[in-house]
Amino acid sequence: MKKIFGVLVLSAWGLIAAGQVNLISNIDARKSLSLNGKWNYIVDPYETGFYDYRYKELNEKNPEAYWNTDIQANRTEKKEHGYIDKYSINVPGDWNHQQPEFTFYEGTIWYKKSFDYQKSDAGNKCYIYFGAVNYRADVYLNGKKLGMHKGGFTPFNFEVPAAVLKDKGNFLVVKVDNKRHADEVPTLNTDWWNYGGITRDVKLVEVPGTFIQDFMVQLKKNTSGKAPDKSPEVEGWVKLNQAPAAGETVTVEIPELKFKKVVPAGAQVTALNFKLPKVQLWSPATPKLYTVTVSTKTDRTTDKIGFRTIEAHGIQVLLNGKPLFMRGISIHGEIPQEVRRAYTQEDAAQLLRQSKELNCNMVRLAHYPHDEKITRLADSLGMLVWSEIPVYWTIDFTSKEVLEKAKVQLEEMITRDHNRASVIIWSVGNETPISTTRTDFMHSLLTKARELDNTRMVSAALEVNYSALNDMNVIDDPLGEFVDLVAFNEYLGWYGGLPDKCRTTNWDTPYQKPLFISETGGDGKGGFHADSLTRFSEEYMEWYYKEQVAMLKRMPAKYVGISPWVLNDFRSPRRNNPLYQEGWNRKGLFDDKGNKKKAFYILKAYYDQKQKETKQ
Ligand code: GCB
To answer: DSSP characters for 69-118?
Structure first.
């Protein structure tokens, strides 16, 4: 049998794939100790704690080099480095907004946290779990290296060897490095701030020796083009961390539906296939979630899951079998009024509340996986989600290693959120320049996304060439062949000509697939008023949106929605117009203080009217 995944199971109904990463999903349901709060830190721009004076890496094979050991074990009496309370930083949270001297810092900071922990059962396992660390994290507990992770926006966990964990005085150290590199994902060049640090929750998680590492309980892909049956079919799986003892079973219960199913456990992955009687489908109008419990004889985990189907059918997108129009908005994971990354529940609530004010039913979480809090909140608020990995612009498409890095991030994103009803699109990148190598790279990511989760749509934001724009523009990027939803970014009237160019411009694609505009927008500085021909004024931006909206009315039948760029003004080192930008991308419909710009009302009116027309 061809091995394409970490775990592959042949079942009566085909191949079931559970990923390669050892990520524990549904993490909030686990017994844990939060390690959030104040951590001590050491700024180490030359990485003295990591390399000796000959620039050789310090590790167990190079032990005489004591800086590293000092930093790991807090033997501060010795030399220049040490952790003291005076140097403390909040976790989670990017470092940039916490100290003025960190605003532009890109490099290494060592983080340290002490904690006590007593396992409740000697046979249990412990893991250190990170919601996200940007970009590279080297993790040490009590002087022992637990592992290294790259990728700034996805969760990961390392097992803590039983011999390393102490009841009292554990000493956790994380070397965080947010330097950008040409062979990473994203690469050197992005249009967003490279916020560094431990940016999401950290916890010590305790699980049984054999435990449910991951599971997927979703409605089977609907390809009928019709509404799902009254008792639709669930197709899923449960993955244990290791092979279970003989006679193990897997039980799925949904008490509200009086549903219970017990199946014999497989080697490590157990296939699930059952009908759900009288389930109420999840949708933006009725975001119904059910408590779902998955258990074995040794473990039990509970999640809240919504059941719905999503499919690209011909030129339409069908949600629960009905045509969907996406009234979207693109969002960065940033809280502008505090100039920092978003990471709290209130942050997620702010971003989705602002989107609801616009009358959106969908958000594009650009350009990287956002915090799990926002996808969970989207589930309960009924907001559809596009989720994306940071394969952005000029990634090194020639490199197999870079492709592997992108695949790891894709898998971590999908593993974390594959039970979220809100997530309907996995996007494998944004505005990647057309070439055969690029198309092969992106195709490989799309294939991987489908293998990991065949219940959702896959896509990528394609780009248009402004210098070649005509009255009729055809999105014919060869990647269109491999996506479910043909999505493109256009900035007609901002990067090309004036907004009135929209009057004669039309868009189409040769692919008989739904067509989505994943970005459009122009800069307008909040509070700067002038005539509509003055770039960067609110009036120019308002005019831009008026012309765009008029153009949208001429879109072909396959047009299924739009997610303009962008909800809020956001920080970007590329945006240095000294009068209007000052380090901010000003395309937000809300400015950096949370005020609505004039363009907000134009888009909202369009969405109100679309909602009426489509009755959604
Ligand atoms: C784009 C990018 C987005 C930028 C935006 C802009 O096409 O996808 O990341 O921020 O344009 O403002 O130029």
So the answer is: HHHHHT-TTSSS----TTSEEEESS-STTTSGGGTT--SEEEEEEEE---
